[in-house]
Amino acid sequence: MASPVSVPYQSFIQIDRNLDCSVYLQISNQLINAIQRGFLTAGTKLPGTRTLGNLLQIHRNTIVAAYDELHAQGWVDMRPNQGTFVLVKSDDKPYKIRSAQQNQLAVYPSSTGYSFRKSILLDNPFEHSACEYVFNDGIPDIRLTQIDHLSSLYSANLKRKSNHKKLGYYNHDGSEYFKKNLSNYLNLSRGLHISKDNILITRSTEMSVYIASEILLSAGELVLVGEMSYFSVNMIFQKSGAHIMSVPIDEEGIDVDAVREICERQQVRMLYITPHHHYPTTVTLSAERRIALLDLASQFGFIILEDDYDYDFHYDKAPVLPLASADTNGMVVYIGSFGKSLAPGFRTGFIVAPQNLMIEMRKHLGIIDRQGDIMMEQVLGEMIEEGDIHRYLKKSLKVYQERRDYFASLLEQHLHEYLDFRKPSGGLAVWATWKQPINLLQLSRSCARNNLFIPRTLLYQNVSITATRLGFGHFTTAEMEESIAILYQAVLSQQ
Fold it and tell me: pTM for this one?
């Protein structure tokens, strides 16, 4: 048994008066930690309350409270006229005392004591930078959202007595009210013919793809994607064990003849497409090819996973209706995001599919997102019913169209000698191919030195193509001017 005065209590009891946790609980928790790790062996007599108080320079009553807490939790035995002792374990085997210098109690273990599976497929591809200006792949400008109005809607729903029962109710199936309004919204805006029973509410497009992959894909099955496709979705397919094969993309979208040739040679399980604005090239799948793909899916029995990426952001003419609107054989699973023009916390994802698939998808959603967000869905449902979502989108579309036009004019004015691009009919990004050989990684590093960050996920360079996806939606006109000026100077430095 160690003497109370020989144990280095000050080495493993550290008091922080800025914490919300009371001092006596800090002491008791750290003493418990010391017992668990073997710093205080079974049978060790703890210092008297006055002695430990003087040692730690705190009031004796605080130590009394800490010892009482230890006794209440069963860690010590308080013997009258003898003192406080660490309880002996049931197996009566004393701990081996350790040196405080060998094992610092204040440091959490740097690694596990067990092995586990590691994935290189899911390494985070996203980069961050402290640069003032950043190109992204086309995200909305949060500064355009009416935060005060959104927060007032949410607050009103929390205070509404009729909603109080919903706050304590776990409902991974989602708000019936929201699903009803969302189905109406999708029927009107996308030409669908669905009811609320055909909708699953998710947190994001990526969650939608993950759930679909878990149910629809098995290891070794073939998934077709565009020659250049959304990297996060590809990571999900690879995680499911599927084999990915790319299909050429041209000015009319995915090459349907190439899809047919692959289907005639081998079994295809799924085709993933973003037909409205293909990621990353922004091209729109032609009407003729849409019909052809639906025919191929019915003929060869593969699933079309249709992502309505950037469907709401269309400027020059009415958007082309999705494949799901013309699907009569149940071959299309339609996924997307709702509220992209709102603040990030007010956005949600969805899946549209036949009811038999919905039953299985709800099972999987119940495992990974049992609680859901019933209040947020109530707010979004009201925004649809009251027409707020239409007003938000109409107002933001006007701004984004002006930004697209100005961004395209800047590219034409400063970089027409170096870049080929076409002003996109929708979306929040421009796809630009470089006319002359240029090292895009070096270009990115040069821009970063001048306060402009271009992530690697926007750089496309191989033996056949050198291109860049440049988001403009989050820039004001002044920010565009500065960013293009930095990019232009970086190009000149490589000539």
Answer: 0.80
